[in-house]
Design goal:
Blueprint lengths: L1 E2 L1 H27 L6 H17 L8 H15 L4 H16 L5 E2 H19 L9 H18 L2 H18 L23 H21 L1
Antiparallel strand pairs: 1-2
Helix pairs in contact: 1-2, 1-3, 1-8, 2-3, 3-4, 4-5, 5-6, 6-7, 6-8, 7-8
Length: 215
């Protein structure tokens, strides 16, 4: 299966809509332990990306450049810690796509590996810290493991998404160890982490885009 720049445009546009549909939910989650603005921040960042996709990137054929512009645009539009994290992820992913107008399933596995590793290194979080890493790390590990066995991206990503959801839901009973919510100590327990949730929605949007693209 071969992919091109249009796949990433569809994926990003899908996530833009998902964020708009869930921005109130994400902010509600954030009110339990943070400033209550995660949904708003994500919406601002991705609406800025939307303008790029509808303008300068509309005819862009280089998937690496698309990811670079998306990452930098999101970073510049947001004033919170999530900006540098996602920007790093997309910039690392862009390196995998460099000099490739068309790419295969294996490349997309490497893309997500680099994306997740970039965020983890930038944020310094580990599984159990109640962050997006609780979603991304298990998903990445399962994706790599399953693709080595099946060589099938759809099957592998579906199983990765199951692990991502488990990781996201596991944050409910965690005590936050990163960010402003870490100041709450035991009081941060009991709410699902908004960053882990938006990260799950990112992966789910990719899966939905992948299924439509292959069909």
């Amino acid at each position: 299966m071969s992919f091109d720049s249009d796949f990433f445009k569809r994926f990003f546009n899908k996530y833009i809509q998902v964020i708009e549909d869930n921005k109130d939910y994400l902010s509600d989650l954030d009110r339990k332990a943070g400033d209550g603005d995660h949904g708003i921040t994500m919406s601002i960042g991705w609406q800025a990306v939307k303008k790029e996709l509808e303008g300068p990137l509309y005819d862009e054929k280089d998937p690496a450049k698309i990811n670079i512009v998306v990452g930098k645009t999101f970073l510049n539009a947001t004033g919170s810690s999530v900006g540098p994290l996602y920007a790093t992820g997309f910039l690392r992913g862009a390196k995998v796509l460099k000099d490739s107008s068309n790419f295969n399933e294996k490349t997309l596995v490497s893309y997500w590996e680099s994306f997740c590793n970039g965020i983890k290194e930038r944020g310094g979080a580990e599984i159990g810290d109640k962050t997006m890493i609780d979603t991304l790390e298990p998903a990445k590990n399962k994706l790599i493991e399953q693709f080595e066995i099946t060589n099938d991206l759809i099957v592998s990503f579906a199983k990765a998404l199951i692990e991502a959801k488990k990781g996201m839901e596991s944050t409910i009973n965690m005590i936050s160890k990163k960010g402003r919510s870490s100041r709450l100590g035991d009081r941060s327990r009991g709410g699902q982490d908004p960053g882990a949730t938006s990260a799950y929605l990112l992966l789910k949007s990719f899966m939905d885009s992948l299924e439509v693209y292959i069909i």
